[in-house]
């Protein structure tokens, strides 16, 4: 290791402390890489191992960012600190470094090849032990040498699920920046006309290493990291960009109560509507059932202001909490969306129809449309048609589709349903 009294050690320690502090403050991941040259090019007359090592350091310096740090340990070992980087991005950077150093010219017509092994410890999910990050990276480099691998990631004693959750938690902020998110649309079928009249917009994350990640996995982390506003704004703008292609279909977007209360929500929506010339009457915001918050004047005022913009409002997951129809008297909602538990309960106990029917009748009496999601079987579709539910969605109608798939498949879906009912 570097002599603890040397300027190099003090510089490395200072940069590592700064990088770790930045990582903790802004909840960004950090990569500590221990790089060892395992194959030096053949020395020419007048050259030394030190000369080649210095040249190697110069080349690597040219391949990294200004916010990154490269320190020489000795003629064969280097420590590289990559700030604000995900594990996948780190592997891309290191692969580029290795690939570049395998095809360089030290002098005109003199091609050189450096062989290298790199051990990596990610902070904080690889290890949160600040004082041991370099040691863990070095240990992993030695594993890479033994196993003849160019790059080896340090894995703590965690099971695969724990590692997966750590990666999701740390890589989520980068997903927005790196265009890893997308929107899909689940069709909504109006039962009395047997026509697709709208869709629910759902966010998806395609992680470069983990593949498809369900919102069920990453939304809790987004909420904990304060990213829900950013995710909503991204989804809303994506819808505004694409809504012209979706003819006259209505689009539902999920909105948490915290997002509903966030400052600037109305201004953001009006700005997006103006920018993309969107008719806001085609947008429905689905808000979850949390009676304690809905009783506040601030929430009611915000909801009324959104209604003045032309937006429709749906109460999502009705029946999951403690919201009753008595609470709707002063609550300007347009749609009641029944929780999936109604569908599963009815499927296992047909006698529940007698309990569910009055709920739907009361909603209709108050002027609300009733939507039920989670329709996965033909029998369920028949049951909810008999109950006079207005709109249904679920995998039996259609899985969530990309924009292009939605446009192409609408007539197919309607034709199939009409053949069944």
What does this structure look like?
The protein folds into 2 domains: 7-157, Reverse transcriptase/Diguanylate cyclase domain (Alpha-Beta Plaits, 2-Layer Sandwich), CATH 3.30.70; 164-420, EAL domain (TIM Barrel), CATH 3.20.20.450. It is built from 15 helices and 16 strands. It has helices at 7-26, 49-61, 87-101, 133-146, 160-177, 215-224, 228-242, 257-260, 265-276, 291-294, 297-308, 340-348, 353-365, 378-386, 403-420, and strands spanning 30-39, 69-72, 77-82, 104-107, 110-112, 115-123, 151-153, 181-190, 195-207, 211-213, 250-255, 283-288, 312-318, 335-338, 369-373, 391-393. The strands form 3 sheets. An 8-stranded mixed β-barrel has the order 8-9-11-12-13-14-15-16, surrounded by 5 helices. It has a 5-stranded mixed beta sheet with strand order 2-3-1-6-7, with helices on both faces. Helix 5 packs across helix 6 and helix 7 (228-242) runs parallel beside helix 9.
Draw up the topology in text.
Elements: H1 7-26, E1 30-39, H2 49-61, E2 69-72, E3 77-82, H3 87-101, E4 104-107, E5 110-112, E6 115-123, H4 133-146, E7 151-153, H5 160-177, E8 181-190, E9 195-207, E10 211-213, H6 215-224, H7 228-242, E11 250-255, H8 257-260, H9 265-276, E12 283-288, H10 291-294, H11 297-308, E13 312-318, E14 335-338, H12 340-348, H13 353-365, E15 369-373, H14 378-386, E16 391-393, H15 403-420
Parallel strand pairs: 6-7, 9-11, 11-12, 12-13, 13-14, 14-15, 15-16
Antiparallel strand pairs: 1-3, 1-6, 2-3, 4-5, 8-9, 8-16, 9-10
């Amino acid at each position: 290791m570097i002599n603890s009294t040397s300027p190099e050690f003090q510089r490395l320690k200072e940069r590592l402390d700064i990088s770790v502090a930045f990582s903790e403050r802004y909840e960004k991941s950090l990569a500590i890489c221990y790089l060892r040259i395992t194959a030096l090019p053949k020395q020419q007359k007048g050259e030394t191992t030190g000369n080649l090592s210095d040249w190697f350091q110069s080349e690597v310096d040219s391949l990294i960012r200004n916010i990154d740090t490269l320190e020489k340990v000795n003629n064969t070992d280097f420590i590289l600190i990559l700030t604000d980087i995900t594990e996948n991005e780190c592997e891309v950077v290191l692969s580029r470094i290795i690939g570049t150093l395998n095809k360089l010219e030290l002098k005109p017509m003199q091609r050189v090849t450096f062989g290298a092994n790199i051990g990596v410890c990610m902070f904080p999910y690889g290890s949160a032990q600040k004082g041991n990050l370099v040691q863990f990276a070095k240990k992993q480099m030695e594993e890479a040498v033994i196993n003849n691998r160019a790059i080896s990631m340090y894995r703590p004693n965690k099971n695969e699920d724990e590692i997966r959750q750590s990666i999701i938690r740390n890589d989520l902020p980068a997903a927005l920046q790196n265009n890893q998110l997308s929107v899909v649309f689940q069709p909504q079928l109006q039962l009395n006309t047997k026509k697709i009249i709208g869709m629910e917009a759902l966010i998806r994350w395609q992680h470069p290493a983990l593949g498809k990640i369900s919102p069920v996995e990453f939304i809790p982390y987004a909420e904990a990291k304060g990213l829900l506003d950013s995710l909503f704004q991204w989804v809303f703008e994506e819808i505004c960009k694409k809504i012209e292609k979706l003819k006259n279909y209505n689009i539902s977007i999920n909105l948490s109560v915290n997002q509903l209360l966030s400052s600037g929500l109305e201004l953001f929506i009006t700005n997006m509507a103006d920018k993309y010339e969107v008719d806001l009457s085609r947008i429905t915001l689905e808000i979850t059932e949390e009676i304690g918050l809905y009783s506040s004047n601030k929430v009611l005022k915000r909801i009324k202001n959104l209604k003045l913009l032309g937006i429709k409002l749906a109460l999502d997951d009705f029946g999951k909490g403690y919201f009753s129809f008595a609470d709707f008297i002063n609550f300007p909602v347009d749609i009641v969306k029944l929780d999936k538990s109604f569908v599963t309960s009815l499927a296992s106990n047909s006698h529940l129809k007698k309990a569910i029917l009055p709920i739907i009748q009361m909603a209709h009496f108050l002027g609300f449309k009733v939507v039920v999601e989670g329709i996965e079987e033909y029998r369920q579709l028949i049951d909810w048609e008999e109950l006079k539910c207005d709109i249904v969605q679920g995998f039996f109608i259609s899985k969530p589709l990309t924009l292009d798939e939605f446009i192409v498949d609408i007539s197919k879906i309607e034709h199939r349903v009409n053949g069944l009912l």
